[in-house]
TrEMBL record:
Transmembrane segments: 20-43
Keyword Membrane: yes
UniProt-recorded name of the protein: Uroporphyrinogen-III C-methyltransferase
Domain of life: Bacteria
GO biological process: one example: methylation
GO molecular function, one term: methyltransferase activity
Keywords annotated in UniProt: Membrane, Methyltransferase, Transferase, Transmembrane, Transmembrane helix
Pfam families assigned to the protein according to its UniProt record, in alphabetical order: HemX
Length: 345
């Protein structure tokens, strides 16, 4: 009887344990499902982030390309604006010439010829200021003087005097043949590699001095020192040079020496073309000093090079400071008087 009662009491507990196990299983299953769903969601989110990063990188690259294209377009626009400005200036000049030509067609030929003479003087002034070409400036001034001479107008007397004074001043100026000087500098630069270095900066002794005999009466340690000293004298040879000896140039330094000379000669050529007297003289002095210091002074090539450099140093390449502003101002005053007289009529 007692066993039956215990069995009946244990049945509800067994049922309760069964349902608890089922609940735990469902809970574990739910947790696993949630973890899986969370992992899948995280994976999808990572994929989306990677895609967004790629999209952002692509947009950044496209934006940079767009900026470059905008910069190129802006540069083209600026160039077009500059070209347009130059076209406007040229059109204004052409319009001025046409107006003067129309005035000439109406019977004022003197004014047209005066404008022609002024244009020739302005061209001469431009050649003096920008290219320092005295010969071309003289030719243009002489043409302008010829045009004014044919007019036979007393009102142009002051202008003709000024043009004649300009011609005389230019003829009195010392002229430098820039082309010839440029070609001479080019030729000297080509001769730099032919300059010889000293063949033997140190004179070799014909025969080494014979070793002195060691006295047999010396103690053993003094005899050993004497033998060691004689051996050292045969290994280490000391020679003395005079103060006028040229410095020794190592083989690996030779190319740098020639390159430095070429660089200085290029400075000379540049200064000739630009009329820079300071660079011209400084470069020639430096080249001369290096040749005198490092190269064989007995060589004929070295002597010829030094002589040519000395001749170049005596040439003044600095262009004279001249301008024709006074003559141009007289032209402007003449045109102002002519216009005022025509307006009064």
């Amino acid at each position: 009887m007692t066993d039956q009662n215990e069995t009946l009491e244990n049945q509800p507990e067994n049922r309760r344990s069964h349902w608890v196990g089922i609940g735990i299983s469902f809970s574990v299953l739910a947790v696993v499902v949630m973890i899986g769903a969370f992992g899948y969601g995280f994976f999808q989110l990572s994929q989306i982030n990677v895609g967004l990063a790629r999209s952002v990188s692509d947009l950044q690259s496209r934006w940079e390309n767009s900026q470059k294209q905008v910069a190129v377009l802006q540069k083209n626009v600026d160039e077009l604006e500059q070209a347009g400005q130059k076209s406007l200036e040229l059109s204004a000049q052409q319009e001025k010439v046409l107006s003067e030509w129309r005035a000439a067609q109406q019977g004022d030929m003197n004014k047209w010829h005066v404008a022609e003479a002024r244009y020739l003087v302005k061209l001469a002034n431009d050649h003096l200021q920008f290219s320092h070409d005295i010969n071309m400036a003289l030719i243009l001034l002489q043409q302008a003087d010829s045009v004014l001479q044919n007019l036979q107008d007393p009102g142009l007397l002051e202008i003709r005097k000024s043009v004649a004074a300009d011609i005389a001043n230019l003829q009195a100026l010392p002229q430098t043949d820039v082309t010839s000087l440029y070609l001479r500098a080019i030729a000297l630069d080509a001769q730099v590699n032919q300059l010889p270095l000293p063949a033997s900066p140190l004179k070799n002794d014909s025969q080494p001095a014979p070793a002195a005999a060691v006295s047999p009466d010396l103690p053993w340690w003094k005899a050993g020192l004497e033998y060691a000293w004689q051996g050292l004298n045969r290994i280490v040879i000391i020679r003395k040079n005079g103060g006028n000896a040229l410095p020794l140039v190592l083989p690996e330094e030779k190319i740098f020496l020639y390159q430095n000379l070429h660089a200085q000669m290029e400075n000379v050529i540049w200064s000739i073309l630009h009329g820079n007297i300071a660079v011209y003289q400084a470069s020639l002095v430096r080249v001369t000093a290096w040749i005198q210091q490092y190269f064989d002074q007995d060589s004929q090539a070295t002597k010829n090079m030094l002589q040519s450099l000395d001749e170049l140093r005596k040439i003044n390449i600095q262009p004279p400071v001249t301008n024709l502003s006074n003559t141009l101002q007289l032209f402007e005053q003449n045109f102002a008087k002519t216009d005022q007289a025509q307006a009064g009529q």
